[in-house]
Q: What sequence folds into this?
């Protein structure tokens, strides 16, 4: 199971009752966070989720509303007595920016390992999370992220029997292990497993003009969380100038990509009631107007939610 | 008149419903802020006070809970279209730390002027504020601040008449101006003004063990705001180790300094209900257990509030 919480939905600056946009995902005891603006650690505490199990922090880009909460978050993780390393992922320059901010958090009880993205599309894996970073189009280098949990195929006992694979090796093969016998015989998981089944995936994308990469990366995902900076259509010039996305533009991407569910986030501070644009937007695609703290549990297709 | 708001009362880390310790003061259209941890700009917006008129920001020290909100605050002040310079005051190393944090706020529409404190006691003046910075005793270099608004003496018409000072110069002298006539005669304000009257003063002090300088600087002030990190007396070893102040130690300073009013702030996250120690503390001094957003209007002694 993958469960997630959209800790905040604000863009540009934190407001009373609206935290900055940030997403936390949890799977198999490993947590990851995308973006960490000022106040994200408080939003997390408000939700009751611990910062300690955060293994990965991804940054879309280095504008303050997406990263200035980093030093406080790292200190709070340290106060929770974490000692395992944390992986931080972001565009080129990540180490320079993070080190600048960490001038007030120089000593931590865990190691910080930086991964600077260099390709337009780049895949990284940590624990259960397969992360596809894809470059989008903002005023500074900015990435969107698709986070996937893979699911193996079904174990095919008939195929294993046909190939005379001894039953004592089945369990190891089923869990992805290759078995090499003393006599040189090798059994690999693909000999006994059916085709990989649909896993789970979530795409998070903010601070960008529309680009084909977003549609591609949001295709068929379980949840697509996308910037909806402005609802009023006459703000288009403003959106173009500052390289942000209009709600209707995001909805058009949703209509093309057909995710199972789609949420807006990263509302402009001027949009105090984003859902007043619902009628306009739903003519294009039934996007949900997410609010701070929205959660979702995702389970594999034929798996019960407990 | 001087009015102030204790924007937050938390120490160490921001919590849901408890912002980090920070004080905002306003006088004659000029605002100043002492400390700016993560979330301070939200606390200010919650209070409905604009960040735009902030002319001065003082930092006690460079631990994250006192300074990590700086880049977001500066960006919000910039978004409010301020163009006048801002003075930032703090211990040695201020420019290095502020520049580190400003890696996410490099471009601002106003100038930032740094003032690094070098003496154990140092006085600076900006607009109506006379600021006495005094070194305290924390794990890193840390200062407390006494902020004063001066009040001139009363104009003494009898003395002016005795000295045959022409009436047409009285107004200028009364407003502190020296008048030099063509024939070389000089009239100075002290020729016509009585002794300076009691002004207004507020002392703010946090993150320190007790020191004589604090008692000295809190003497007779209108309001003394002081760290009350722990209430339980068995936390003394912890307080000593991390150079923080116990509530009873702060109360003892209050009893000696005799401020007109005293508030606790900078509570440990472990002190969820600081006022449970009231009976213990009031045996020493009637300190008020301040909470986020407490305000106070201070007026000159014989002046009506409005």
A:
């Amino acid at each position: 199971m993958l469960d997630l919480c959209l800790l905040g939905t604000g863009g540009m600056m934190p407001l009373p009752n609206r935290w900055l946009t940030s997403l936390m995902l949890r799977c198999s005891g490993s947590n990851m966070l995308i973006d960490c603006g000022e106040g994200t650690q408080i939003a997390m505490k408000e939700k009751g989720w611990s910062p300690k199990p955060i293994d990965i922090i991804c940054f879309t880009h280095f504008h303050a509303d997406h990263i200035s909460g980093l030093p406080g978050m790292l200190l709070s993780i340290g106060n929770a007595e974490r000692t395992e390393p944390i992986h931080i992922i972001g565009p080129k320059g990540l180490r320079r920016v993070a080190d600048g901010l960490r001038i007030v958090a120089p000593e931590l009880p865990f190691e910080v390992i930086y991964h600077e993205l260099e390709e337009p599309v780049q895949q990284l894996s940590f624990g259960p999370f397969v992360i596809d970073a894809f470059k989008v189009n903002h005023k500074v280098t900015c990435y969107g992220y698709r986070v996937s949990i893979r699911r193996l195929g079904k174990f095919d006992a008939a195929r294993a029997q046909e190939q005379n694979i001894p039953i004592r090796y089945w369990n190891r093969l089923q869990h992805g292990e290759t078995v090499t016998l003393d006599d040189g015989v090798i059994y690999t998981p693909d000999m006994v497993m059916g085709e990989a089944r649909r896993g789970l995936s979530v795409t998070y994308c903010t601070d960008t003009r529309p680009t084909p990469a977003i549609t591609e990366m949001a295709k068929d995902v379980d949840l697509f969380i996308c910037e909806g900076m402005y609802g009023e259509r006459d703000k288009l010039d403003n959106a173009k100038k500052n390289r942000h996305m209009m709600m209707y533009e995001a909805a058009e991407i949703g209509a093309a990509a057909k995710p199972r569910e789609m949420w807006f986030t990263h509302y402009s501070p001027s949009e105090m009631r984003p859902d007043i644009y619902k009628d306009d937007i739903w003519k294009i695609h039934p996007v949900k107007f997410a609010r701070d703290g929205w959660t979702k549990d995702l389970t594999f297709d034929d798996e019960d939610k407990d």
Observations:
- Chain A touches chain B at residues 12-16, 37-39, 41-42, 45-46, 62-65, 67-69, 71-72, 75-76, 79, 96-97, 99-105 (CB under 8 Å).
- Residues 2-152+196-298 of chain A form a domain with the Metallo-beta-lactamase; Chain A fold (CATH 3.60.15.10).
- Residues 9 and 265 of chain A are 5 Å apart (CA to CA).
